[in-house]
Amino acid sequence: MTIKEDTALAVNHALSLEGRKKLAVSGVMDVVSFDEGAAALETSQGTLILRGRELHVEQLDLEAGRIRISGEVDSLVYEENRQTRESFLSRLFR
Predict the structure, then answer these.
(1) Cα 1 vs. chain centroid, distance in angstroms?
(2) pTM to 2 decimals?
């Protein structure tokens, strides 16, 4: 087991979505990408793909593993782990 995998197992992951307008996520290890229409968050439970409109980061604390996002949330999907970032990013913006 690598250090990254060991750390991922130790971090609790939770989602809280209020009225499709406010999203709080814990267990976030990295923000892979973010714009007004989509975000990719590396969490302790895999990569979380968020799609929506007018998305904005309200709060980000990677040391604590938390992010708060506002905007219109359309979908939340966990992606398979990919070997290369390029293939992941190409899938994100299809």
Answers:
(1) 23
(2) 0.75
pLDDT at site 79: 87
Radius of gyration of the chain (CA): 13
Tens of pLDDT, residue by residue over 74-86, are 999 998 665 445 5
Instruction: State which residues form the domain around 17.
Output: 3-80
Question: Is 64 within the bounds of a domain?
Answer: yes
- Judge whether 62 lies within some domain: yes
What pLDDT does 86 receive? 56
CATH of the domain at 29: 2.60.40.2000
**Could you give the C-alpha distances from 93 to 1, 37, 38, 84, 85, in angstroms and in order?**
31, 10, 8, 15, 13
- Alpha-carbon distance of 13 to 8, in angstroms, equals 9
